[in-house]
Q: What sequence folds into this?
């Protein structure tokens, strides 16, 4: 077998970062990843301090970020699980150092113009940032395999965006959706999607036995969805909700077909689009995915139900927000970037 | 003060029946309700057997149903918290006995024709059943106060139906919704809405950490919604979901206005419609209701968010499915039927 | 009916404070309570800002604390739902102003010496503080009715302490416990017991699907327990656990009897002790209380199971930590202080 | 690499059986396991019918149990995840067929005499059953490695028993516990421990927001604990509780040492006992395990806290009841039986 790849993770102390670290650790093509922390991060020195479940495996030391060390250790691929401001600031240097980068934040997912509008944030070096934005590949392997394979900078998609784009892409590609009627995604996410920082909104007593809608018409992930799906802003209405569960996303998506179809045709459309794609499972109607089914896996599960009129169509899309919605997808992207089987390290 | 009303409850051993019993017990206008059980019910003899939380208040004996006893005890109002088949079979006799009836099941909510289509069920005496169906008043006091006041048979609305109808009635009355675009209600309910019978679907391990959609395009409550709102079947798409919480409903409702409106206009429309109605709270935009806020109350909480285009409108409607969605609404109906303040016994 | 009592609450923005506010609002003997906030509190100006469920009842304005205003409004009884440092600092002035005080914190529950050891905190005026400590009555009405009736300062018990003391008091009074063997209380509490401040320990993702033990041998409530029960420190081992539920406490308590007894004798011992006490329910063996049964009530539910040897005894004690463990008990104490029925305002 | 082992599973449709199937499937030393169902089982024909999360991996067909087929397929090891009555009836034939057996039920864990007392059940062939009972090895690899290695019939331990025995074995072996004082294990388990059959006790609404104690002094697992630990029945008090979580066990165990010890000594005692044992993690005091840490792993996590007197000791022991408490331990036993590394297939 070939020499193992050297990787590093910056930001392992968040939920996605932890999940990523665990996946990388047991990936058969990799050496044990180097874990690094930002100077102004949360000060964690060993991951097991904040995730005691990690104890007993020789420690998970977080070293201060050092480009010199990355180079001397022979690291070729850097994962960033940092806030988008940090990613925006660090990626230019990483690329300049010759590293390939998979960034899990929203920093590089959008075209420059939309990015500026959504993430009100100034780049230190606007020209480089703009060039990198052009270069960055949106890391949804089911849509962009070839570009990811050769990318130096991969922008790992948002969790909600993954669940919505994968459900809609086949039907939009087939041009069977009546866009004048608009598309609605009513999405529900577990709390890990809101991050690990304590806040009144993530307090157990606020979340348990509750459900709430938030960021109506204004959630940042809408930008990714419309860009990737080629929609105008007003063609997609997206409403996220906070579920009293630790992890998992279910999106219930409402579209109107521009001509009556049969359930068989809809199913074929989905199946053909994802033929040969390991990580999307299409459920035969009337079976629908539930959050449980894809939990702790890298699957995106898709199901649907068609009204008797053959035109009102409801899609149901489920993922684990920390896996297919973050760390699992990052590993899948790595597999594509290095020409490995997409399943490696993800069973 | 006038003599207290005598009431009886049949079916107190379900979730709604228990909640109803508790409300009736402390209602200032009532004597302690008589609790009865059907011969082919679950055999419970004292409610405290299955709800030990009731112990210590003199017992909650369930006597076998007896019309003679109801008459001799001077009972005037009978609550049925029974399955719809049982309600359909028992109400004719109750009405013949001169009782007023509030039925919490789906037995009398729909016009005869739709009823036959949705509840595939034959009546023993089809003529009487059909006449009673005509007589029955849909017990949503915010819409039908006067009819409820004089009704002999009140059909207490379904829980989902309550949350959806109350959100949409004002805008439909104002004729500002573009019906050609269709209305979508993506609704989510706690598990008590599924009843107390154990099943694989209500097993803790199936529900916890999960979310699932069910009965797409086929849920029975759609019948009530379209009838009460004057919609055609295809104008309303309703998708229920099972939430990992014991109680509470949140409906996220998507409509398109037939002309651009301001948030202020939308809010006025809602506020004016519910002016003087105690049990509907309209939240000022951008504040949205959450399941928590109406839990353990009889409130229906309404909020909304309008897109920048002034036409895409999202309504959020929350109720406690066991109160405004069942037992609380039944008590509110009783208050209307006897000319009492709608708030009595519901604080 | 006599004129209604005027009361005020300081600290209504915490979980216990909110629950207390709700109870006081509908208490038939009271005017609507005045809500006040500390200068260095959390800045809330209207309770409905942080508890939107309160909206629609005329507002819950929090005014800055002012002794002048309390006096001019004719307030006679002040409830403090503040951190213990704040209570310790404010009570001397409140008493000097002639107010009666019910304090929900740990500030006045312990004898001076133990207090200094457990709450490492210096009083501004040590002499006054020490005198008030002597005067303060431990507000467990089942044990100290007469003293509470005439108290000026009532120290409302801790939630864990309430569940443990009420379970053990009858058997200790009857001198049937073998103290040489030690008493163990393995207690489990919902998250509201940890307060409303967000922290990593109360984050939904940390608590859900989890259980953890904490403060082994060192929890502050042990002080109250041993003082009230007349035990030495080493005779009681108390272990609290954090449950993934919003509210409720269950204590499983292990004792050894100093002679074999029958279950009937044990039950009699409990029943006689609590004869005439509304708010303690003794369950007939083998029925045991569960957290559910006392939730949203002011009951302390007690049950037990005796080993075949007649000496190993397990007591199970349940309360709602925000009611019998905090706000409900405070109202019960008020009822005793003013000679009202202990049930008033607590159904 | 040697030829892969052929295994079969009977009873894959329960929670433990599903978990076991998943583990066996990706175990590097095994061929894909054959799944079989009993004639009077639940009729499932493909596991994916009841566990749709399994879809997309070529199916999980359950064939009718057939000794002929097991033989012709070359199966050498049979896992039984069946009710204890079924295991008791089937094992004699399996052994007669020359199969090695790992049984996950309680059928073969106890000495004959105790078994008859606890499981009131008559064997068809009492002599064979009694002989097999003598032969059966209690499958706790940390205690009985050598016997398991050569066993034909391994009785996989109960979940509660695993958590309690592993915590106590080191200290009992070291004879430092004062047995006259008695040992108490207050244990709490997630709902999957109660099995997959729907019942009022496992209904979501009964479990959520609740906690209850059950089977006081009478739980079947006590038999295993006292036998394995060499205790008399009265020396161990065991109280199980039902937690509102899907999986995980935490046992809080109270012992008194027969002489004052230091925390260091206690830790050494635990560490030495488990030196070289992969699947037990000893936490350095004052760090304590939580349910979360061992979830979805095969670890048993042990921690402790010692009172200042050096004699009152509290042990905290956590496992995932479906892994170290059932399926994971079964795989660990298989690893020992075939001389493989205990970690194989369990990362």
A:
């Amino acid at each position: 077998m070939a020499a193992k790849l050297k990787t590093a993770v910056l930001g392992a102390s968040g939920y996605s970062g932890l999940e990523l670290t665990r996946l990388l650790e047991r990936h058969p093509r990799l050496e044990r990843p180097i874990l690094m922390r930002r100077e102004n991060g949360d000060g964690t020195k060993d991951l097991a301090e904040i995730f005691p479940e990690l104890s007993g495996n020789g420690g998970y030391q977080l070293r201060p970020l050092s480009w010199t060390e990355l180079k001397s250790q022979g690291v070729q691929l850097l994962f960033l699980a940092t806030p988008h401001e940090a990613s925006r600031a660090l990626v230019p240097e990483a690329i300049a150092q010759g590293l390939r980068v998979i960034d899990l934040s929203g920093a590089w997912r959008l075209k420059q113009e939309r990015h500026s509008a959504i993430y009100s944030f100034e780049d230190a070096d606007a020209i480089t940032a703009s060039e990198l934005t052009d270069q960055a590949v949106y890391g949804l392997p089911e849509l962009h395999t070839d570009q990811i394979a050769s990318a130096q900078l991969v922008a790992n998609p948002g969790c909600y965006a993954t669940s919505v784009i994968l459900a809609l892409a086949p039907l939009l590609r087939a041009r069977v959706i009546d866009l004048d009627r608009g598309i609605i995604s009513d999405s529900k996410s577990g709390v890990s999607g809101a991050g690990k920082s304590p806040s009144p909104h993530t307090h157990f007593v606020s979340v348990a036995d509750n459900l709430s809608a938030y960021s109506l018409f204004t959630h940042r992930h809408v930008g990714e969805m419309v860009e990737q799906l080629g929609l105008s802003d007003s063609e997609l209405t997206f409403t996220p909700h906070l579920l009293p569960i630790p992890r998992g996303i279910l999106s219930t998506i409402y579209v109107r077909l521009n001509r009556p179809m049969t359930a068989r045709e809809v199913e074929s459309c989905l199946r053909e689009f994802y033929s040969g794609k390991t990580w999307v499972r299409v459920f035969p109607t009337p079976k629908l995915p539930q959050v449980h089914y894809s939990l702790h896996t890298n699957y995106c599960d898709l199901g649907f139900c068609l009204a008797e009129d053959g035109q009102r169509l409801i899609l149901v899309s489920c993922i684990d927000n920390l896996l297919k919605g973050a760390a699992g997808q990052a590993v899948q992207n790595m597999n594509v970037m290095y020409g490995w089987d997409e399943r490696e390290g993800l069973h």
